[in-house]
Write a structure and sequence with these properties.
3-stranded antiparallel β-sheet; elongated; 3 domains
Length: 216
């Protein structure tokens, strides 16, 4: 559990958002309208009464979703049409300046409603061939590196491994840590390990589901 969490760039979001603590397995999303996006953001607090900090990571999917909020929350009225178009195109969102056509494959959009009286003639010919293939190799999880990372992190926080080994089961579902279960006696070191396993980010190339029991 992270006590007294605050964002370094924004100050505390307030107890109505964090309730004074961020508990195991919980997530937080806090949004603000700023004149300029901060270069860095850290979430700080106390873990086992010791200072703790985690740098916020940026991600392309969330950038696009945030751009879409400009239109879903009606924050686009002060923007010019070219500015709206740039943001809507990046967000892939329907907006006052962008839209999507729902038509059958191979069917051109209807011309109903266009004025008559304009004519033209054109001719073109061409020949070409287009093809492609791709293969993405799944990235294996380096469990030994994860074990060492948890040991180092918990040693840094002052937790010491007890005489009996700490065992934890980690369940991964398509790049995401789905569950972390402590299989041994609960100690400060064990709690620290569980917190670290929840926070650890798996490589982007990890695929599939896997369950692994780790010993520390």
């Amino acid at each position: 559990r992270i006590d007294h969490p605050v964002f370094t760039q924004f100050g505390s979001p307030g107890p109505e958002q964090l309730a004074g603590a961020l508990r195991e397995g919980e997530s937080i999303r806090w949004m603000a309208s700023l004149d300029e996006a901060p270069r860095t953001t850290e979430l700080r607090g106390q873990l086992w009464s010791r200072p703790w900090a985690l740098a916020a990571r940026q991600s392309e999917p969330f950038h696009r979703a945030t751009a879409g909020f400009v239109f879903s929350l009606d924050h686009y009225t002060d923007l010019s049409e070219p500015e709206q178009f740039v943001i809507a195109s990046y967000a892939r969102a329907v907006s006052p300046v962008t839209s999507y056509l729902a038509i059958e494959p191979g069917v051109r959009p209807s011309t109903d409603g266009f004025e008559e009286g304009v004519s033209g003639l054109g001719f073109g010919a061409g020949h070409g061939r287009l093809g492609g293939s791709g293969f993405a190799r799944a990235v294996p999880i380096d469990w030994s590196k994860i074990q060492q990372g948890a040991r180092d992190a918990c040693s840094h926080h002052g937790a010491t491994s007890p005489p009996a080994p700490t065992r934890a089961r980690v369940e991964v579902q398509d790049r995401e840590t789905a569950d972390v279960t402590l299989l041994s006696t609960e100690t400060p070191f064990a709690a620290c390990v569980v917190e670290w396993l929840w926070a650890h980010q798996l490589p982007a190339g990890v695929r599939g589901d896997v369950t692994k029991t780790l010993k520390f």
